[in-house]
Amino acid sequence: MYIQNKCVNSKVCLNLKNVSKKYLQTHSNKLHTVLENINIQIFEGEFVTIVGKSGCGKSTLLNLIAGFENFYDGEILLNGNPIKDTSPERMMMFQEVALFPWLTTFQNIEIALKLAKISKDQREQIVMHYLDTVGLSDYSRSYIHQLSGGMKQRVALARALSLNPKILLMDEPFAALDISIKISLYKELLDLHKKTRKTILFVTHNINEAVLLGDRVIVMSPLLYGIKKEYVIDIPKDQRNDNSIIKNIITQITADLYDNI
Ligand SMILES: Nc1ncnc2c1ncn2[C@@H]1O[C@H](COP(=O)(O)OP(=O)(O)OP(=O)(O)O)[C@@H](O)[C@H]1O
Ligand SMILES: [Mg+2]
To answer: Which among 19, 20, 21, 23 is the best mutation to test ligand 1's pocket, defined by most ligand atoms within 8 Å of the CB?
Structure first.
């Protein structure tokens, strides 16, 4: 429940304090600001979506949180501890499926657990549990090329979940999929969020997707090098289709994205 944009009954999970990021532009040899003084608090169990024009820094933000980039200003804290490197606590899912085509579905998930030094018996149990969670138990022996795009993203989701992350970072995970597959994955992701209460940070270009899935939507702007607005969506997720308040929020976010600020 939110009161004045604060999620009560919840601890802060992720805390970004004055985070700024610049990249060196190779063609001009100048530093190019992408993010400037970003402040975000994400609460435990919250599902936050991020929208913004191409190039506004959405992936950069996720990459900093994932620990892929170590040079930035400000602080990023997970449960109060500074983020220094990549970690299974923060699992990333990308738009392009990042699976190994020469391994089976089972092996693709198992490999992450092997790296985490989890015993063989436990691995078997964990892999089958998460394959079941994403509805793919019957495909454990299939190779990745034998799966559809939606199924591949489910394997990636099962793999991310199998390491029991504190936060799931999703960078346009459904962008390349057909609308009917997307709709079934929305439902699965929401069911999964309800069941596991994982903290999720989900980047998308699709405003409808952001508003249907998020407890809160963050709108980013390239001109501000950061956050333009936030919308808390206090409507149960199973009541968002064909809802006039939701339609209104979609219209407002669309205007936010196209008013050149
Ligand atoms: N490794 C890098 N080196 C230099 N510049 C980079 C690097 N990564 C991103 N950038 C620049 O940072 C800016 C933001 O990129 P980013 O990928 O975060 O945008 P985005 O909002 O995710 O865009 P899209 O919606 O197209 O995915 C862009 O101008 C991009 O060129
Ligand atoms: Mg991106």
So the answer is: 23
Domains of the chain: 7-89+166-258 (3.40.50.300), 99-164 (no CATH)
| Max Cα-Cα span within the chain | 55
| Whole-structure pTM value | 0.92
At residue 254, the pLDDT reads 96
The whole-number mean pLDDT for each consecutive block of 10 residues of the chain, a chain of 261 residues, reads 54 95 90 96 97 95 95 95 92 86 94 92 95 92 92 90 92 87 88 92 96 97 95 96 96 91 66
Alpha helices (H) along 54-148: 58-66, 105-115, 120-133
- Report the C-alpha gap between 39 and 36 in whole angstroms: 9
Q: Which of 26, 38, 49, 58 to mutate to test the pocket of ligand 1 (most atoms within 8 A of CB)?
A: 58
pLDDT for the residue 149:
86
57 CA → ligand 1 middle, Å: 6
